[in-house]
Amino acid sequence: MSYKDKKVLPIGSVSELTGLSLRKIRYYEERGLILPERSGGGTRKFSFTDVEKLMDIANQIEDGMQTFEIKKIYKKEKQKDKDKIRDEMIRGQLNAAFKMTK
Predict the structure, then answer these.
(1) Among 73, 29, 76, which residue's Cα sits nearest to residue 54?
(2) In its keyword annotation, does this UniProt entry include Lipid metabolism (predicted)?
(3) Is residue 95 predicted with pLDDT exceeding 90?
(4) Could you say which of 4, 24, 25, 36 would form a disulfide bridge with 44 (CB–CB 3.0 to 4.6 Å)?
(5) Is 64 left (phi over 0), alpha (psi -120 to 50) or beta?
(6) In the chain, where are the structural domains located?
(7) 59 vs 101, which has greater pLDDT?
(8) 10 falls in which pLDDT band (50, 70, 90)?
(9) CB neighbours of 7 closer than 8 A, spacing ≥ 6?
């Protein structure tokens, strides 16, 4: 796991880094656009990847997109990533199978 993916930043720091209000960050979480982890005490913990994603969301909102549209885009991207991983696994299995028959 990359340091960028570790969920260690509290919401206050994320707000400072992004310029977004705490309310906006919580709203994006409610809409399912960002998924912070929760500590044992319930504190939200974000990663640097989350910070980048929040900046992307803010830019898209500024460009006139709605949160449901952004969520749709992220779902498509996530599915593409899953499909790519599946394809790579299948390709690897086929390569392994053909090497075994030699």
Answers:
(1) 29
(2) no
(3) no
(4) 36
(5) left
(6) 3-101
(7) 59
(8) very high
(9) 36, 37, 45, 46, 47, 50
